[in-house]
Amino acid sequence: MLISYKNANIYQRHGIEVLHGVNFEVDEGEMVYIIGRVGSGKSTLLKTLYCDLDVDEADEAIVLEHDLLTIRRKEIPALRREEGVVFQDFQLLGDRTVYKNLEFVLKATGWRLKERRDERIKEVLSMIGLEDKADKMPNELSGGEQQRVAIARALLNNPQLIIADEPTGNLDKETADNIMQLLTSIVKKGTTVIMSTHNIALVHKYPGKAFQCQDGKMEQVIVRRSEGVRSEGVKNDN
Questions:
Q1: 34 forms bridges with which residues in the sheet?
Q2: Domain ranges of the chain
Q3: For 82, phi and psi rounded to 5 degrees?
Q4: Ranges assigned E (strand) in 52-97
Q5: What is the rounded distance in angstroms from the CA atom of residue 238 to the CA atom of residue 235?
Q6: 108 φ/ψ sector (left φ>0, alpha ψ -120 to 50, else beta)
Q7: pLDDT digit string (tens) for the chain, length 238 residues
Q8: Which of 82, 125, 141, 151 is deepest in the core (most CB within 10 A)?
């Protein structure tokens, strides 16, 4: 089990509770969706997984064998090295090339040998199909290509878990499909992906475990193409 939240209360930065009594379990090699409307708590929940927000109230809050209820600040970088995070707005460094964006992360996480950095960057760019874009600046890439680079950045340290916050939110339908195919291929290789989205059509097309945030609660739901979202006590209003 990679993640285990039991009866967790999730708060925004200013102490406003957004989710109450969260029970959330994720295992290796799963595609997991967090669905719900804007403001329902999806992003807030994801931020707790990489300790951008604290979990102070829970019976249990474990991520990659780290206890979030007792974790110390100096231990957080070790947790984050086991994760990869993909943001909706890419967050690439605009003043350096694709290669330099990726090298920056490797240097920051302890890859001292240039030969090893070069090899790893070539590997991840090959995985995302952008081997020929290493010398391009981010503004020379399409939105879909920039998101692929963001995914490559998340893959650099061979994470057990990728956390993707609305990774297709700024992309057109065709490009979003390409990104979903890439994330699905990553899951098939054994890496867990947790992705927030308000796009139920993607969940229909690329099945996985789904949780819905609604009215201050998060519950596991079943998503069926013909019936929409179904859960005890939760109705589909997306």
A1: 196, 211
A2: 3-41+55-193+216-230
A3: -90, 0
A4: 60-63, 66-67, 83-86
A5: 9
A6: alpha
A7: 999 999 999 999 889 999 999 999 999 999 999 999 988 999 999 999 999 999 999 999 999 999 999 999 999 999 999 999 998 888 899 999 999 999 999 999 989 999 999 999 999 999 999 999 999 999 999 999 999 999 999 999 999 999 999 999 888 999 999 999 999 999 999 999 999 998 889 999 998 999 999 999 999 998 766 455 555 434 333 3
A8: 151
**pTM of the full structure:** 0.89
**Beta sheet of 217-224, edge-to-edge order:** 83-86, 161-165, 192-197, 31-35, 209-214, 217-224, 228-230
Write down the residue that tokens 């925004």 correspond to.
12
